[in-house]
Each structure stands twice: as structure tokens, then as C-alpha cells.
């Protein structure tokens, strides 16, 4: 190192001067752990090699009260004759008595004479390390001796800290006043010096690469640098060296560095570690309960030895080392004091809360609002763990009352967003908080939703009944309407989740929503409005109202703990109203927002809805993917009764893709008993029935479908868009060879507005066609295809096209039949429905239909414009108008206009009559 070589050269020059009889004094100054001792040791080793007599001693704060402690150590050297040593010790003992100043005047000349006599025979080097820790008597002697060595073969070398005690300042000034005294300033290593040290441990290229980072971490402190190198080399022996990583050796070096300095240094380091920085000396001194001057001195010392840089620790591992070595009770007291002082000074709630949490003690009640505010800020940053700790601490500090109940409700919501199963342990206590005037109204419906989710429907009902009873008894003492709106929201939500509860809450069911048009949504509660949207979507002739209600919820409320479930059921309301396109757009938006949040439960629930949307659009691989993703985000225990959503979707998707073993394995998953009392439970019953139907268990399938129907009729939610149980049961009757039973059930399927939605009406016509003669069958199938072409369910469309193709084959119209079957195969293939593909074209159908990749769609379509060609190809592949508009980024009206021109140019009347080459053309490059 350049710095060390320069210092060694300067000291060696002084030694040469002393050897020639011109005594010298060297004062080596530097911060703690700057390398003063190492420099002194290296120099004294060199002096010994050059035949100098070394008399050395080290100052100690523990021995500072021992008079002449340094001088006694010097006279313990074996080179001093026993008689001289004995006389010197006797005189020093006499001089140590405070009342004997005359004795000191005898002791110091004698000691000085003895040392000067030694120097007559050989060069004497007197080396005192940490002279700033020496006792006052020894300092007086060193000054006495320094004045007398100028013509002697003596070199006095002293090391001292950069910060001196008041009594040392005079010694320091008097010493430097001597003309033969030289001061050697030892600073921290420069970046170049750091690189030089690294060059002795690593290859040149690696040393160069690591130098800057090592210097940033250690500030050039030799003690810290050596420790860091040990950690790095230890890691390198275990595995290939990748990066500088301070470890235990470095941490111990930081602690050693602090203990070497003055006591204030360690104290201030602890304060800075607790506060995070030393930007405010006043605050630091108040937290540590020391004088501001002492705090300032401590900061200066820590900065000089490079532990601090700009008032903060250079590296977090140094701060962690200080905190780890601080006694727990001391650390707790510092954090608690810091919290109260920061709060008094108007610091942010987050800063105060961090100290309250770090204190690990109970807090005063006045700190509860601070913790609540900090939790809200933490949730904005998605730091759920910090928010949860704040709420738990605040809850423990609260007395029974409204604030405690509010905190518990918030705490449950925070736990729930990460793991609903973990939130269940809080539900009994939350239920106990449900009393008038205790739980704020905005949390009532949310709390009921958590109870319902966990399957505790009876507990939820009992809680609402008790609340309603108490509210009625104390209504005269309450603000008018204060609790009624909240109670209504809770009742409506429970009756929506579990339709059997409509008998418990007769004024909160489907009938009220139907007659009042969802007017309850005007109270501004997301749960009430979402329940209204579901109710409208399941009522005959109210699809438009349902869509409007659902979109009002989706537009009005942002994604949060209290609005997640209402937003999810608003999406389901859109699905039940046959608006999968709207549901998809909103669901994708919410998933995009959710992806950046640390809320697995949110993401899981929205993914389950996304899976249901994909299933209803005929995207079987997509449905399976989203459902599996949903089930992987949280444990199965966390799903509660809503496990029915992803599980039923996945079962149906696997069944339709021909993966029957996977579907059966999913059916073996245990589900809560309360599931069959809920709306989502109907999805599960249907999925189980579809699996039974596909695997030949027709009676079991029929039983599930009819059970589903009985429940839906009993609950007043007999909507085909929820579960088309009559159509499903009709298919089971057909499989059993009971065409009459099938036709009777299918004909009794209620249709909204007389015609029904595209999915329901198309599926009904498809089943009815299977029970009719050929002529009637073709008529029904044509109508089904026309309806399904304008809808979203491409899987139903594929089935209808295939049936229609088979019908034309039966009539002998083979070309037309081949065209329709090929179209059906393409659509089924895009849906991932392999069983249907095999049914349409048994064997290896790929070779027969894969004429994709043609540059022009066909010679028949040469008259089409580029835009018309894209629309024509997509239409020929079975895409609906909505899907084409989405893929090509145009409006549905534009697609309809293009299709009108396409039909005219190709001389066809409908999309199923589009030329076969169009259906075989590649979709690559389109949208």
C-alpha cells in the first residue's frame, strides 16, 4: 500500500536520526481502526531487526486511573537492571500518592536518567500504543522525557486517536510544540489503497472489479476491509465467488471497531442504528438521553472510522451487527423512546409505527390511531405483513369498543387477502364484535361475506338476527337508518350466496330485487349492489338491468379488501346475463390491476372467474389453465365454499377435452358440506353430472342434473344461464334412449324474453334436434347455428355445425356436409375439444384439413378486399362477430357490414355457406 510505505519510510528516517544521537518523537494520529497499531508493530519489528532496544506499552481505558501505569510497563523490560527497576518502582509508588508532589519530582528524573543511560549503549525505541488512554502521570513523564531526548539515541513513538479528552489536549499541544516532534497522520485507505490490498488476495481482474464495491462498504477502514476479505474468501472456497457479501467476520469487526473507541461511540452507533440515520443530532441525543455535544462527537468518531457515511451506516450489515449486539431491553427502550419522540415531533405514522413494532412491547392507547394510519399506508404499498403487525399491535392496545372491532375487521381482511384459511381463526372473535355501535357499518357486510366464504352460514345468520333484534330494541336511541342499511346489505349478501336463506330473510331475496329493480343499491354499498345484479341476472326478463347493475359496481368501486367479492359477483352477474364479452373485458382489467398487488386470494378468485369466462366461450385449454392457476395461488382449505368455482370449471374443461381420469381425480377432492347450500355449489353439481355423462354413468349424471333442478326451483333461481339443468338432463335421457323424456324436458326450458340467450337457445335447439325427424332436425339445427354464430360459445357452435353437417350427409348433400363438418372440426380444434374432433372426423383428421398457409384465401375470394378477407377467414373458422371485432380492433357494426359485402361478392346467404377454402386458410398473421 502506498500510504503505509510512505509512513514506514518517515518513521525509519526518524529511527536513523535517533541512531545518530539526535533523538526524535513521532506522534501517529488516526481514527479508530485506521491501522495505527499495525503501523506501529511493523515499524517496531523493523527497529528490532536494526538492533534497537524496544520498550513498549499500551494504554488502556481500564487502567487510566493507575498512576504511572505506562511507565511501570516500560520498566518491566528485562533489559533494565533489577536494581534500577526496583528503585524506579519504589519511587513511582511514592509519587503515586496525590499528597506527594515532591515525590513525583524525584521519580521522573530518576526514570528519565535510567532510560537515557540505556540509550548510551544502543538505540532505544519507546513505543506507546493508544497513548490517549494513558494515565495523567504517565503523560507528564512522557512530556518530561521528550524534552530531554533531543541529544540522545532515543526515538519515542506514540499512537493516539483523533479525538482526545480535555486533559489530553494540553499534552498533545505541548508535545507537538517540541521541534524534534513529528506527526504522522494515518487516514483510511484510498480507493487505490483498497485495490492494492485486494491485489494480494485476488486475481488482478477480480481485484479491479471488486475494489470500488469493497471501498464503498468499508470506507477504506483496514480492520473492516480485512474482515470483508475473510468473508469473501470463505465464500469463494465453498462455491464460485460471485459478489461481495459481508458476513459474520465483518459484523464482528464492526463491533470490535466500536468497542475500541470512546464509550459514546458505541452508544451513538446504537442510536443511529435505531433511528436509521443521524441527520438530527438533537433527536439522537434525546433518544439516547445524552448531551447533544456527546452525540455530535460520537457521530464524528463513527464517520472518521468510516462506519458512518453522511450520518448513515455504509452498509446494512454494519447496522444489523450493531442491532444484534445491543441488549434486547436496551433496544426495546430505544425504539419505544424514538417512537414517542417522533410522534411528538409530527413524524409520519409509518416511521413511528416501525419503532413501535421494533420495540416489541405493548403500546399506549394514544398510539392506536398511529398504528391504524400506518397500516393503511402500508396496504397502499402492498406491504401486508407490516400492515398486519400494526393492526395486531393496535388491537392488543385497545379496550373493548368500536375501535377494537374495526381493527379486528380490518385485520381479518388483511389476513384474508393472503390466506383465507388463516383468517378463519379470527372469525369467532370477529363474530363476537358484531354488536350495535361496536362494528362500523361498512364492515358488516364484509364480515358476513367472510363467514359465508368459510361455510359458517348458520353463524352468519345468527349474527345478523341478533343484530337486527338489538337494533330494533334500541332504534329510538340510534340515528335513523344508521344500522338498517348495513343490516340490509348483510342480509342481501347472505341470501345471494345461499339462496335457501331467503326464507330466513324474506325481504332480501330474488323477489324483492325483481320488484324493486335493485333499488337497494342506492345506499352505496358494493355488497348490496352486487347482490342486486346477481338477483336481476337470475330473474326472467331482467338481463339488461343486471348488466347495468353489474357495470355500475365495476365502474364505481376500486379493487380492495372490502370490494373484491362484490366485484367478482358483478362479473358473474354479467356471465349469467350472457355478456361474456363484457365480463372478459372487466375481468382482464381487474387481473391486470391485481397482478401488481401482493394479494394471492384476490388473484385466485379473479382467475377462477376468468376460467369460467373461458369455459363459456368454449376455450377449454384456457379455462383449464386459469382454473389451475386459481387453485395453485391459495390452498384448497383457503377456498371455503367458493372452491366450487375453479373446481367445477376445471372438471368441465377436462371432461370436454377428453381427460376423464383427471376430471374424476378432481371429483375426489373433498368439498365443504355447506357448498351445496350455495349458489356456486350448483356449478359443482353440474360439473359432476357432466363428468358422469361423459364417462357413461348416465343415471348418476341424471341424478345430479335433476338434483340441481330441484334446488334451483326451490330457491327461486331457475335460470339456464346459471345452470341449464333441463338441457343437461335431456342429454342424459337421450344417452339412456329416452328421447321423449329428453324432448319434454328441453321444451320446458324457460327462455328469457321468449327466445332466450344465444347459449341457452342454441343448446336447447341442439338437444331438440336430436329428438326430431330428419326434416325437423335440419330446421332446428339451422336455427341453432344462426343463433350460436352470434354468441360467444364456440364449443356449442362446433357441435351444432357438426350435427348440421351430419344432417346434410343423411340427405345425400355430401359437399355441403363436408364443408360444415370441416368448419365444425376447425372450431372444435380451436376449442381444444379433442373428443368432439374425433367424433366429427375419426382418425387422423389433421392431414385431411391442413391446407393452411395459402397466401390468397381462395380463387373464389379474389374479389374481396384485404379487410374483407380477414373477416371472411375468421368467420369461416367459426368466430363470432364479437370475437372478430376484438381480434381486428374494429366495431361489431363494421364486422356486420363487411360480412354483408362478403356474402354478396361470394354469392352466399350466411356464414356457414362460406367457401371451404376459407375455412382451411391460415389464421396466422390475423389479429
Descriptive account of the structure:
InterPro entries: AAA_16, P-loop_NTPase, Sig_transdc_resp-reg_C-effctor, TPR-like_helical_dom_sf, Tscrpt_reg_LuxR_C, WH-like_DNA-bd_sf. Pfam families: AAA_16, GerE. Residues 857-922 form the HTH luxR-type domain. It comes from Streptomyces silvisoli. The longest helix is centred in the N-terminal third of the chain and has 21 residues, at 101-121. The strands form two sheets. This protein has a five-stranded parallel β-sheet with strand order 2-3-4-1-5, sandwiched between helices. It is mainly alpha-helical and 927 residues long. The chain is elongated, with a radius of gyration of 43 Å. It starts with a helix and ends in a 7-residue tail after the last helix. Helix 34 runs antiparallel to helix 35 (660-667). Strand 3, helix 6 (136-146) and strand 4 form a beta-alpha-beta unit. It contains 49 helices and seven strands.
Residues in helices, as a percent range: 55-70%
Rg estimate, integer Å: 43 Å
N-to-C span: 66 Å
Would you tell me the overall average pLDDT?
86
Amino acid at each position: 500500500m502506498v500510504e503505509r510505505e510512505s509512513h514506514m519510510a518517515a518513521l525509519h528516517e526518524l529511527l536513523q536520526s535517533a541512531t545518530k544521537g539526535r533523538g526524535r518523537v513521532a506522534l501517529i494520529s488516526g481514527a479508530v481502526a485506521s491501522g495505527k497499531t499495525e503501523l506501529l508493530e511493523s515499524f517496531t519489528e523493523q527497529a528490532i531487526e536494526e538492533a534497537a532496544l524496544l520498550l513498549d506499552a499500551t494504554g488502556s481505558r481500564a487502567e487510566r486511573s493507575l498512576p504511572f501505569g505506562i511507565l511501570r510497563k516500560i520498566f518491566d523490560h528485562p533489559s533494565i537492571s533489577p536494581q534500577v527497576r526496583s528503585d524506579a518502582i519504589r519511587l513511582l509508588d511514592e509519587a503515586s500518592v496525590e499528597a506527594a508532589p515532591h515525590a513525583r519530582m524525584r521519580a521522573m528524573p530518576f526514570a528519565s536518567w535510567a532510560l537515557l543511560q540505556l540509550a548510551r549503549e544502543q538505540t532505544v525505541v519507546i513505543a506507546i500504543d493508544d497513548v490517549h488512554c494513558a494515565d495523567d502521570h504517565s503523560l507528564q513523564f512522557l512530556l518530561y522525557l521528550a524534552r530531554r531526548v533531543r541529544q540522545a539515541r532515543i526515538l519515542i513513538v506514540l499512537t493516539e486517536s483523533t479525538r482526545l479528552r480535555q486533559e489530553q489536549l494540553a499534552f498533545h499541544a505541548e508535545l507537538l510544540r517540541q521541534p524534534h516532534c513529528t506527526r504522522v497522520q494515518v487516514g483510511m485507505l484510498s480507493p487505490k489503497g483498497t485495490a492494492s490490498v485486494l491485489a494480494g488476495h485476488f486475481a488482478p481482474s477480480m481485484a479491479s472489479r471488486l475494489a470500488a464495491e469493497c471501498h464503498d462498504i468499508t470506507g477504506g477502514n483496514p480492520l473492516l476491509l480485512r474482515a470483508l476479505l475473510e468473508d469473501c474468501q470463505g465464500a469463494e472456497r465453498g462455491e464460485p465467488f460471485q459478489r461481495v457479501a459481508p458476513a459474520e467476520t465483518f459484523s464482528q469487526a464492526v463491533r470490535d471497531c466500536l468497542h475500541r473507541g470512546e464509550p459514546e461511540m458505541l452508544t451513538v452507533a446504537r442510536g443511529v442504528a435505531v433511528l436509521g440515520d443521524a441527520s438530527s443530532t438533537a433527536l439522537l441525543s434525546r433518544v439516547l438521553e445524552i448531551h447533544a455535544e456527546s452525540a455530535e462527537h460520537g457521530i464524528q468518531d463513527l464517520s472518521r472510522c468510516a462506519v458512518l457515511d453522511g450520518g448513515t451506516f455504509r452498509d446494512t450489515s454494519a447496522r444489523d451487527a450493531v442491532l444484534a449486539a445491543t441488549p434486547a431491553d436496551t433496544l426495546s427502550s430505544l425504539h419505544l423512546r424514538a417512537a414517542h419522540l417522533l410522534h411528538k415531533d409530527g413524524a409520519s405514522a409509518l416511521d413511528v409505527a416501525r419503532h413501535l413494532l421494533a420495540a416489541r412491547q405493548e403500546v399506549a392507547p394514544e398510539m392506536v390511531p398511529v398504528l391504524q394510519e400506518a397500516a393503511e399506508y402500508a396496504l397502499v404499498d402492498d406491504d401486508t405483513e407490516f400492515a398486519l403487525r400494526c393492526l395486531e399491535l393496535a388491537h392488543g392496545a385497545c379496550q373493548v369498543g368500536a375501535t377494537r372491532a374495526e381493527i379486528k375487521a380490518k385485520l381479518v381482511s388483511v389476513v384474508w387477502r393472503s390466506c383465507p384459511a388463516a383468517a378463519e381463526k379470527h372469525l369467532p372473535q370477529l363474530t363476537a364484535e358484531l354488536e350495535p355501535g361496536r362494528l362500523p357499518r361498512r364492515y358488516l357486510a364484509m364480515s358476513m361475506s367472510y363467514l359465508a366464504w368459510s361455510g359458517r352460514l348458520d353463524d352468519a345468520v345468527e349474527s345478523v338476527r341478533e343484530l337486527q333484534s338489538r337494533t330494533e330494541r334500541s332504534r329510538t336511541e340510534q340515528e335513523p337508518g344508521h344500522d338498517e342499511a348495513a343490516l340490509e346489505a348483510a342480509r342481501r349478501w347472505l341470501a345471494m350466496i345461499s339462496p335457501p336463506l331467503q326464507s330466513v330473510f324474506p325481504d332480501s331475496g330474488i323477489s324483492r330485487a325483481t320488484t324493486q329493480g335493485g333499488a337497494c343499491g342506492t345506499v352505496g354499498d358494493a355488497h348490496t349492489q352486487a347482490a342486486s345484479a346477481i338477483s336481476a341476472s337470475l330473474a326472467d326478463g331482467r338481463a339488461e338491468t343486471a348488466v347495468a347493475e353489474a357495470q355500475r359496481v365495476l365502474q364505481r368501486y376500486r379493487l380492495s379488501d372490502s370490494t373484491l367479492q362484490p366485484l367478482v359477483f358483478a362479473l358473474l352477474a354479467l356471465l349469467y346475463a350472457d355478456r361474456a364479452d363484457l365480463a372478459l373485458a372487466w375481468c382482464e382489467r381487474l387481473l391486470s390491476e391485481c397482478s401488481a398487488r401482493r394479494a394471492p386470494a384476490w388473484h385466485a378468485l379473479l382467475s377462477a372467474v376468468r376460467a369460467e369466462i373461458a369455459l363459456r366461450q368454449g376455450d377449454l385449454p384456457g379455462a383449464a389453465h386459469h382454473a389451475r392457476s386459481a387453485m395453485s395461488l391459495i390452498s384448497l382449505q383457503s377456498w371455503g365454499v367458493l372452491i366450487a368455482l375453479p373446481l367445477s370449471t376445471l372438471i368441465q374443461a377436462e371432461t370436454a377435452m377428453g381427460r376423464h381420469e383427471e376430471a374424476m381425480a378432481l371429483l375426489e377432492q373433498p368439498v365443504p358440506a355447506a357448498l351445496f347450500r350455495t349458489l356456486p355449489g350448483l356449478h359443482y353439481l353440474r360439473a359432476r353430472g357432466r363428468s358422469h355423462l361423459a364417462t357413461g354413468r348416465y343415471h348418476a349424471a341424471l341424478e345430479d342434473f335433476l338434483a340441481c333442478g330441484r334446488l334451483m326451483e326451490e330457491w327461486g333461481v331457475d335460470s339456464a344461464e346459471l345452470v341449464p339443468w333441463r338441457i343437461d338432463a335431456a342429454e342424459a335421457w337421450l344417452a339412456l334412449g329416452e328421447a321423449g323424456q329428453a324432448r319434454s324436458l328441453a321444451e320446458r326450458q324457460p327462455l328469457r324474453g321468449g327466445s332466450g340467450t344465444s347459449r341457452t337457445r342454441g343448446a336447447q335447439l341442439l338437444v331438440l334436434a336430436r329428438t326430431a325427424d330428419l326434416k325437423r332436425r335440419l330446421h332446428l339445427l339451422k336455427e341453432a347455428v344462426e343463433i350460436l354464430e352470434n354468441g360467444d360459445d364456440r364449443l356449442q357452435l362446433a357441435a351444432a355445425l357438426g350435427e348440421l353437417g351430419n344432417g346434410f350427409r343423411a340427405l345425400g348433400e355430401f359437399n355441403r356436409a363436408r364443408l360444415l363438418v370441416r368448419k365444425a372440426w376447425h372450431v372444435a380444434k380451436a376449442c381444444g375439444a379433442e373428443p368432439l374432433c374425433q367424433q366429427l372426423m375419426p382418425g387422423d383428421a389433421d392431414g385431411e384439413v391442413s391446407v393452411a398457409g395459402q397466401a390468397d384465401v381462395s380463387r373464389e375470394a379474389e374479389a374481396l378486399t384485404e379487410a374483407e378477407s380477414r373477416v371472411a377467414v375468421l368467420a369461416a373458422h367459426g368466430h363470432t362477430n364479437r370475437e372478430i371485432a376484438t381480434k381486428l380492433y374494429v366495431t361489431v357494426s363494421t364486422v356486420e357490414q363487411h360480412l354483408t359485402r362478403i356474402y354478396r361478392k361470394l354469392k352466399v346467404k350466411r356464414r356457414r355457406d362460406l367457401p371451404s377454402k376459407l375455412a382451411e386458410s391460415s389464421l396466422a398473421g390475423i389479429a
